[in-house]
Amino acid sequence: MAHDSDTARPVRHGSRGRARRDEILSVALGVIAENGYRGLTLGEVAKRVGLSQQGVLHYFPSKEELLIGVLRQRDEWDVSAPFGGENAVEFTVGDLEMLVEVNAARPEIVRTFSALLGESITEEHPAGPYFKDRYDWVRDSIESTLRGEFGETMPSGITAAQGAIMLTALMDGLQYQWLHDPEKIDMPELFHGLTRLVTGRES
Amino acid sequence: MAHDSDTARPVRHGSRGRARRDEILSVALGVIAENGYRGLTLGEVAKRVGLSQQGVLHYFPSKEELLIGVLRQRDEWDVSAPFGGENAVEFTVGDLEMLVEVNAARPEIVRTFSALLGESITEEHPAGPYFKDRYDWVRDSIESTLRGEFGETMPSGITAAQGAIMLTALMDGLQYQWLHDPEKIDMPELFHGLTRLVTGRES
């Protein structure tokens, strides 16, 4: 699940710059968890990390870049931690289902992702390249997982490539309904039901 | 598919006010189709409709309210025109599939919907009530369609209620991938494949 990108590169590549950059991202994630997507301001992050606002802007030139950085860090965590070790490239459909369970326990980061995904499809939005690139590697990864577990055409009759688009769409789409009505929408159960249908596996 | 709402009510209920309001919405839709979501400004709408900006604000107190008005008008059209006559309340799964085909031919209105859906899940956003309400009636309508055509538990083993959430999520989620990569994502074909899986029907 390796991926490249041309946005939000760290300004410094030295280990001290990298450590400070990671600290800003962790603090930003904490602010989002506490105050929500709209509660994230560069001023609040700067205060908590002990930098001037200008100091934060040195690492992330805008609030959008900082939000993309937070999501990118989540991606790195998601493809390493629950999927069995750093830089893991192999995962299973069961791991995907676990990821949806993890998401159901972190509404504010899901809200950040979903809000930015919505903005990203408007013209020239800074998050556009991040999401386009992310869709490519997410679909490729899921497609290769489905092919490995169920073959080119799965027992359902759906191809691995189609299945990857469908499961990705379901994850994204469920999140909007869930954020609007968390009591009514059981994301993990629904996602589990759909992976069963899309693959055609028995349980 | 009747629905109530407590936002974006017309300011005037007289027929002249209603006609002017409808004209503003049609013009706004045209501006979106030509210039995209970000290209819609109250100034441009006012110019084309021959009102001052203040005049437009009399009908729609903010750009967000105007966008919600455009989407609400699309909803009214969608549940009447392709589904067989004014105020139609009955529709089929085939009508839903046709709706996805219609959407694939109107990227700018889909972009407007998807961008506003993204914003709507942030705190206190003016589009929040519209989307929450819309999800309720869309799911209820699809659920009742699925129940009518396939029974409480469909041949797939999925209930009508679960199927309604899944198909709604698929429509929303596919649109984001399609807007980022229209060449790669064949929305109508994928949605057709999904309705077949979710219902368990043969073709």
UniProtKB/TrEMBL annotation, chains A, B:
Residues 18-78 form the HTH tetR-type domain. The keyword Transcription regulation applies. PROSITE patterns: HTH_TETR_2. Residues 41-60 bind DNA. It comes from the Bacteria. Keywords: DNA-binding, Transcription, Transcription regulation. Pfam families: TetR_N. It comes from Salininema proteolyticum. This is TetR/AcrR family transcriptional regulator. The keyword Coiled coil does not apply.
